[in-house]
Amino acid sequence: MAAARPVTRVARGITLSVSLAVALLAAVLFSSMVGQLPVTPAEIVGSVLRAAGIDNAWAPTDPIVESTIWIVRFPRIVMGLAVGAALAVAGAVMQAIFGNPLAEPGVVGVSSGAALGAASAIVFGGSLGLTAALGSWGIAVFAFAGGLLATLVVYFVSRANGRTEVVTLLLTGIAINAFAGAGLAFMLFMGDTATREQITFWQLGSLNGSLWREVAIVAPITVLGTVAAVVLGRRYDLLALGERNARHLGVNVEALRIGSIVLVALLTGVAVAFCGIIAFVGLVVPHVIRMAIGPSHRPLLVASAVGGAALLTFADLVARTIVPGADLPIGMLTSLIGGPFFFYLLYRQRKRSGGWA
Q1: Res 130: pLDDT
Q2: Would you call 244 exposed, middle or buried from its count of C-beta atoms within 10 A (0-12, 13-18, 19+)?
Q3: Rounded to whole angstroms, how far apart are CA atoms 119 and 143?
Q4: What's the pLDDT tens digit per position in 123-176?
């Protein structure tokens, strides 16, 4: 029986990998096809082949269809893939360093801190010369700073006696979200009409209006951040054994945690900077995958990146098609999915610990 468990886990991992790959391809294909202007699969394949320098009969002849594919849908799809992967990996890393399945950038206030930083750049960037100095990176830099500050506060407040206290973690997240909400309200008060619209967009979360120049910032950071997290995967496995055991096995625990905090802030900040607050992706995806393939962090992180990309792409597809002629905020949809799941995790955590009173 003992020998059968690893085989079963490997089989589950293979099955999950194939399922996630199929889901990801299906999400990309359907998102490319569906919209106010329908596009056939043949036109999509033909357009991609023509862009690669291969002439074919499938490529669309209508320039409007070509523009829809390359200017509207493909940037939005790639942005969704990158942001979904970034948030899922950030959630998995947070759960690893806090040792708590309830840790997630949106829940504990990291996303709100990043949004406040981005809003500050929107309102004050022009007057401080940030727009001219940093260009498209200005908002991303401020979002990273806000997310980093929020993550550091969560880490130092919620840690006690070598472990994370669940109640303190949640209360810290509530406090940070409340403070960031007040800060966003102040930015709305200080801004003009255009900046107010931008800040409102950040609060709701959306992939609408994604541009290739923004994708060129988000996608490389997501890839590098995911690779860095996977490289640290073995250390996260050792950290799960307990801080003392991890130290005896040669892990610099504090350096690992601080580096991971910077990594979480980077992934969350770059996602929030261009797409706003999209909650619960980092909570739902890593937890479901952990239940399927086990706690080993390297396969968990890779699968979380693919799963997060697929989930957000499907969610965006629903957001722009469920109401004809309207583009719903994707952050609203992910909260509708993740909210009940969070309640389930909260109940299970409380039941396992025998109550918090």
Answers
A1: 58
A2: exposed
A3: 8
A4: 887 665 555 566 667 778 888 888 888 888 887 887 766 666 667 777 888 888
Q: What is the pLDDT of residues 61-115, one digit of tens each?
A: 888 888 888 998 999 999 999 999 999 999 999 889 888 777 788 777 888 888 8
Encoded tokens for 88:
């899922």
Q: Taking the model in full, what pTM does it have?
A: 0.86
- Going by their DSSP bridges, the two strands 159-160 and 163-164 should be labelled as antiparallel
Phi, psi of 144 (to 5 degrees): -60, -45
Contacting residues for 287 by C-beta, under 8 A, at least 6 apart: 95, 101, 341, 345
Q: How far apart are CA 13 and CA 294, in angstroms?
A: 9
pLDDT tens digits for range 10-34:
677 678 878 888 888 998 999 999 8
Both tokens of 112, joined, read 């709100």
Find, among 43, 269, 244, the residue nearest to 143 by Cα: 269
Under 8 Å CB-to-CB from 208, ≥6 apart: which residues?
76, 320, 327
Q: Cα angle vertex 88, ends 83, 91, to 5°?
A: 125
Both tokens assigned to 45 = 């394949």
Q: Which two tokens stand for residue 253?
A: 């625990």
Judged by average pLDDT, the poorest of 122-126, 260-264, 283-287, 300-304 is 122-126
pLDDT band for position 356 (50/70/90)?
very low
